[in-house]
């Protein structure tokens, strides 16, 4: 009997084409950012992780089904052992033209070591997370991170030819006053910068309602200082972009707590254990590890992916519950990688 051919495109029940896969290659990290993890995180047992070969097979299945952009994240993707083996393997899809872009979100701690290899594997743009340029504050926010190491990494990335975008989580009373100087620094170095609102995900040690800083407020303050020209460009994600006339650089605002981006959502997220999350803000996930391991052929896997895309929800429902201060989504960002 003929096997049903894999669908070339993944279209969800709301007519959205899924073309962007974010893959968390590890839940582990060498930092402990206050908004992301508790200092004493329990990580997944290593035995639960998909192997690099399995991650490659899964990503390749998604590419066969229409994914054009793939972002590796974590945890910290560059602390996974032999991660370059995976990155180089995925780079072959850039050469064949099956994939438009392979990219990475990183805390930058290992970049000095990997920048040239990343470029050689076909990566051209990366996101590096930096919330402050003050060394002491950097340590307060990341707990275990060292700013000079990250800045060396960013410089190495630039030298290697990688286009760097800086991601900055806006934290009330923490880096709030420093946001203009961070933008000036990034734009002066030729990097775009995107501000991110804190999302209520996972248990952390502190009080999240204290950290929450609405980007509408930040934007208002920045508008008093600079001319912000709206850019039409949309990524299918929760980011809006402006050009800062005075610096010439691009500035993004990611406001995940608003709903206005869900209708154009083109992405799904895969964890390092093979769970597929169809929405960052919802608990529903599909297990792809079982169909992956059940057979050497990809038929079961393709069917499981189709079934999962068929239940991609219309939108999310983030709230920071001010009464209980419990996260609306109990899993950590380090599992799905943001
Ligand atoms: N470790 C890498 C890094 O920090 O870039 C990749 C994973 S990290 C989870 C991805 C992004 O999510 C980072 O830019 C980080 O600042 C952001 N992030 C983590 N927890 C968050 C939260 N609760 N709210 C908003 N952004 C968060
Ligand atoms: Fe690690 Fe990134 Fe989470 Fe910070 S935000 S703890 S660097 S995974």
Structural account:
The longest helix is centred in the N-terminal third of the chain and has 14 residues, at 83-96. This protein has helices spanning 52-64, 83-96, 111-120, 135-142, 147-160, 179-188, 208-211, 215-225, 289-294, 299-309, 333-336, and strands at 10-11, 17-18, 20-24, 69-73, 101-106, 125-129, 163-169, 192-196, 228-230, 239-244, 250-254, 267-270, 275-277, 285-287. The radius of gyration is 19 Å and the shape is globular. By secondary structure, the chain is an alpha/beta fold. It contains eleven helices and 14 strands. A twelve-stranded mixed beta sheet has the order 9-10-11-8-7-6-5-4-3-12-13-14. A two-stranded antiparallel ribbon has the order 1-2. It has a domain at 10-166 and 260-336: Aldolase class I (TIM Barrel, Alpha-Beta Barrel), CATH 3.20.20. 31% of the residues lie in helices and 18% in strands. Helix 1 (52-64) runs parallel beside helix 2 and helix 3 (111-120) runs parallel beside helix 5. Bound molecules: S-adenosylmethionine and iron/sulfur cluster (SF4).
């Amino acid at each position: 009997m003929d096997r049903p051919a894999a669908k070339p495109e993944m279209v969800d029940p709301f007519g959205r084409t899924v073309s962007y896969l974010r893959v968390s290659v590890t839940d582990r990290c060498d930092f402990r950012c206050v908004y992301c993890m508790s200092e004493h995180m329990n990580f997944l047992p290593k035995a639960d992780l998909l192997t690099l070969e399995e991650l490659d097979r899964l990503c390749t299945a998604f590419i066969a089904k229409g994914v054009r952009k793939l972002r590796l994240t974590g945890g910290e993707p560059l602390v996974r052992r032999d991660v370059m083996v995976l990155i180089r393997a995925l780079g072959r899809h850039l050469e064949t033209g099956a994939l438009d872009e392979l990219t990475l979100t990183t805390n930058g701690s290992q970049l000095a070591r990997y920048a040239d290899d990343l470029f050689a594997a076909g990566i051209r743009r990366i996101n590096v997370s930096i919330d402050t340029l003050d060394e002491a504050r950097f340590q307060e926010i990341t707990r275990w991170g060292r700013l000079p190491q990250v800045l060396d990494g960013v410089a190495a990335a630039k030298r290697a030819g990688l286009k760097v975008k800086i991601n900055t989580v806006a934290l009330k009373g923490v880096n709030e006053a420093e946001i203009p100087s961070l933008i000036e620094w990034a734009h002066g170095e030729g990097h775009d910068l995107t501000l991110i609102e804190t999302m209520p995900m996972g248990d952390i040690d502190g009080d999240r309602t204290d950290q929450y800083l609405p980007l509408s407020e930040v934007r208002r303050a920045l508008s008093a200082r600079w001319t912000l020209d709206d850019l039409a460009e949309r990524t299918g994600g929760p980011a809006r972009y402006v050009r800062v006339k005075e610096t010439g650089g691009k500035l993004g605002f990611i406001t995940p707590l608003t709903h206005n981006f869900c209708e154009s959502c083109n992405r799904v997220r895969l964890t390092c254990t093979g769970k597929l999350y169809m929405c960052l803000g919802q608990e529903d996930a599909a297990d792809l590890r079982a169909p992956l391991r059940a057979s050497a052929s990809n038929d079961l896997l393709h069917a499981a992916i189709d079934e999962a895309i068929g239940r991609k929800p219309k939108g999310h429902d983030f709230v920071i519950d001010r009464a209980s201060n419990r996260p609306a989504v109990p899993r950590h960002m380090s599992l799905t990688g943001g």
